[in-house]
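User: Quick one: structure for sequence A, then sequence B.

Assistant: Sequence A:
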Amino acid sequence: MAEVKIERLPKLDQETLERLIEIYMRGYEGMREYGGEGESYAKRYLRWCWNKAKDGFFIAKIGDEIAGFIVCDADWYSKYEGRTVGAVHEFVLDKKFQGHGIGHVLMEKCLEYLGKHNDRIELWVGERNEKAIKFYEDYGFRRVGQSGIWVRMVKDLKREEGNASE
């Protein structure tokens, strides 16, 4: 497989949005309950992600093709924490690119980015999405709660700047 390039999404034009929707829809095949209500939902949701977290919207490219993306928000108000934390809003790889380590490269980019701004990250994952839960646990996320079919996971980070108190 060709080399993976991770880059910040430069703009969300129509063509890019359509590719991201395609990846999103494919990524949730067989788990429809977590992937929203189809393409119009995906389009609205991905636009929301872009407007909320442009700086942390990273794509993985193999050649010219987008293989997957992760949306990392450094400025998310968590009602569970009662403060601002980092959040992973969306993280999905095209099925045909899964199993090649691309997800790891994206996650590392996200953690590096959020580590500059946040001391804690939260994300939500579908309770039946065991592969994803295991993936997050391998990165040090732990389950801290559940709401309906969604499991809330958090990871504590050491701020990269290093605090005087440490």
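Sequence B:
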Amino acid sequence: MSDNSQIAALESRLADLEKRLTVREDELDIRKLQHLYGYLIDKCMYNETVDLFTDDGEVRFFGGVWKGKEGVRRLYVERFQKRFTYGNNGPIDGFLLDHPQLQDIINIQPDGVTALGRARSMMQAGRHKDYEGDAPHLKARQWWEGGIYENTYKKVDGVWRMHILNYMPIWHADFESGWANTPHEYVPFPKVTYPEDPTGPDELIKDHWLWPTHKLNAFHMKHPVTGEEMVAQRWQGDIDRENARA
């Protein structure tokens, strides 16, 4: 092999290594972003949570879509902050939220500035009996929640940010009675949009569900071995129950 050929081969190998390194660094940066989101939500630091999003970002949550930075702030600050912590941007005594971010799978897209990710959250939450408020949602209680993220991230000015946070709560359970006794629609889905509901979503999501209904949340990626779409079969008994309730 000539010197020129060797140099060309080394340059090609170096370019490939640089590309692979950039992808790995991007994956790590997005994992840090997702995990930081969990820490901020745990401590009710909602202003800082909003700052994680792109200006044109959105949150898809619990049957609703909150669009743009204004919509994202309406959800986290106007809805969550006022409901959970009396408008305080930070934790308050007697109120617990834990959102571990688990099993994250990040896929950087070919453009290098968009990424798709799937992760899981397993939440424990509650309000202590000595710190009750007057409203029904401020009374002492303790519950579990499990959900799946299918998020989109964007790199803006060299920094990865949340673009679409698509969090789908899968199941809830009161601590005392457990998930075998969870009622249908444990938490009511939004029925009214903004501005009729001042903290409501800009749009409603039609295909939403909660345990004990149980469906597959679509994967953003194909099967890594077969290259096929991962699609779950729907059991006929579940279809019959859905039709009977309709």
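The first strand starts at residue 53 and ends at 61. The helical segments are 3-42, 46-50, 68-85, 236-245.

User: Thanks, that's what I needed.
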